[in-house]
Amino acid sequence: MKTVNSIEALRAAVKAQRMAGKRIGFVPTMGNLHAGHITLVTEGLRQADFMVSSVFVNPTQFGPNEDFDNYPRTLDADAAKLEAAGCHLLFAPPVDEMYPGDQDTWAKVVVTEITDRHCGAARPGHFDGVSTVVTKLFNIVKPDVALFGKKDFQQLAVIRRMTTALCFDIEVVGVDTVREANGLAMSSRNGYLSADEKNRGAKLYRCLCAAKEAIQQGERDYMAVSQRANQELTGAGFEPEYFSVCRADTLEPATATDSDLVILAAARMGKARLIDNIDFQL
Ligand code: PAF
Questions:
Q1: What is the number of alpha carbons within 13 Å of residue 96 lying toward its C-beta?
Q2: What is the pLDDT of residues 152-176, one digit of tens each?
Q3: Alpha-carbon dihedral angle through residues 123, 131, 273, 224, given to the nearest 10 degrees
Q4: Among 114, 120, 160, 235, whose Cα sits 20 to 30 Å from the Cα of 154?
Q5: pLDDT beneath 50, residues of the chain
Q6: 223 Cα to the center of ligand 1, angstroms
Q7: Structural domains in the chain?
Q8: Per-residue model confidence (pLDDT) at position 92
């Protein structure tokens, strides 16, 4: 696997592959890779001939009091994992390659409506940073297919809308969440949890499964479903942020007649803010 740090070198390497008729796959990441990221690369290799991954801790998607400075930067270990997974090219630009000078103030990509609720409400500006950097990365790599984890369900929905609205000729693929044996969704931020918190953190997924089960058994009072889950999470030592039964397409609160559903949840545990979700049809 080759590693490049400049946009020019990335473009030259990808262009050569495209001219050779290869289908280009792309997995953007912020590094500190775990089995969930590796699954994206593995799935990408099934759908493309040449896999590109990026490792870039994107400053514009972090709020002023968030963990940008402390976000784990583990480039050597990440490169080794990507190479072992069969990735062909790693793009690891420094911040001033992606945002030279004051370019982060020149333009931003704003996806409306679907960003209003949930993580968008809790983290103002976060999705503007995500859609801006993903637009830049899409324009740099120009992949045929890009893969994102379904753990960040709202992020995936934002990127799908952005891709359609801005006419990117890129297939966006969502890949199932990879979980620890106890059900905890894998996340780069799980490293902020102690062993005990990791055990208790698994309760978030158990609450999602219980809520899905109740709805499948006929429960339609979605406020009551949320309240029950929030109580259980509080009892298990979480600070719940949201637990919402939503329409899977718009992420608006679901009504009793909706059948394509996702339950989205976010809760704080110790130093970590955990998010998870479960999607299903009635
Ligand atoms: O999901 C992530 O790791 C990031 O939000 C992404 C998509 C790489 C953009 O920085």
A1: 1
A2: 999 999 999 999 999 999 999 999 9
A3: 70
A4: 235
A5: none
A6: 31
A7: 2-175 (3.40.50.620), 188-277 (3.30.1300.10)
A8: 99
- Residue carrying the six token digits 């990808």: 14
Pocket of ligand 1 (CB under 6 A): 28-30, 58, 61, 130, 133-134, 152, 155
Residue whose token pair is 């889950």:
229
Residues linked to residue 51 through DSSP beta bridges, in sequence order: 25
- Tracing tokens 């912020």 back to the chain, one arrives at 30
pLDDT score for 229: 98
Length of the chain: 282
Q: Where are the alpha helices (DSSP H) in 61-202?
A: 75-85, 95-98, 119-122, 126-141, 153-165, 195-201
Q: How much distance in Å is there from the Cα of 14 to the middle of ligand 1?
A: 21
User: Is 0.85 surpassed by the pTM of this model?
Assistant: yes
